[in-house]
Amino acid sequence: MISVFGEYPFVLPPLPYDYDALEPYIDAETMHYHHDKHFAAYVSKLNDALAPYPYLQKMPLEQILCSVGDLPPESRTPILNNGGGVYNHTLFFNGLAPASEEVHTPEGELLEAIEGFFGTFDNFREQFSEEAAAVFGSGWTGLFSDSEGNLFIRNIANQDVLLCEGLEVVMLFDVWEHAYYLKYKNDRAEYIKNLWNVIRLR
Ligand code: MN
Fold it and tell me: Would you kindly state where each structural domain of the chain is located, as residue ranges?
């Protein structure tokens, strides 16, 4: 199984664009802290948590995250928290692109599916933004698809993942305060509004 998330020892994937590429919507300082400090910490803590367990080191990240019953009880929490952090941040940073690229509105099959489930792209955006504003504490809002192509907007707490329920990420909004606080302070709604300018939907 080839995994985009890699295997132990996990390495911090570089951003697929420059730190200032998402300006003015996400500032370079936030990107440095978010990627180089927060994301990096999930990677190194995941490696630390897996260090004593050779049988887990052979597994791709997806398998580790979905093997809850096989994880050592004393290390289950750090493995799931930090593994989820690596999973979610990999998808989040790869799911953004500079505002100038024409990738921020869906087309083709995804557009049809969004219109089928939410009426219009504008309706979807409004509903998704409301859900993201309503996340209590730290978490994420995502658009997910199941194996039959059904779409769902779901909020997830902390660094949980829905992978093991068979849901694949279409797009993810990080609504942890560390994702926006330097620029937006407490104004999560403004951050969410601006994130639509840089979210990748193609
Ligand atoms: Mn984050």
Answer: 28-94, 101-195
Per-residue pLDDT of the chain (202 residues; tens, 9 = 90+): 457 898 899 999 999 999 999 999 999 999 999 999 999 999 999 999 999 999 999 999 999 999 999 999 999 999 999 999 999 999 999 999 999 999 999 999 999 999 999 999 999 999 999 999 999 999 999 999 999 999 999 999 999 999 999 999 999 999 999 999 999 999 999 999 999 999 999 9
Mention the CATH class of domain 28-94: mainly alpha
Instruction: State in Å: Cα 92 to ligand 1 middle.
Output: 8
> Could you give phi then psi for residue 199, rounded to 5 degrees?
-75, 140
How far does residue 158's CA lie from ligand 1's centre (Å)?
10
For domain 101-195, give the CATH number.
Answer: 3.55.40.20
**Could you give the C-alpha distances from 55 to 61, 177, 193, in angstroms and in order?**
13, 35, 43
Q: How far apart are CA 61 and CA 46, in angstroms?
A: 10
Neighbours of ion ligand 1 (CB under 5 A): 174, 176, 179
User: Is the pTM here over 0.90, yes or no?
Assistant: yes
> Could you tell me the distance, in angstroms and rounded to a whole number, from the CA of residue 16 to the centre of ligand 1?
16
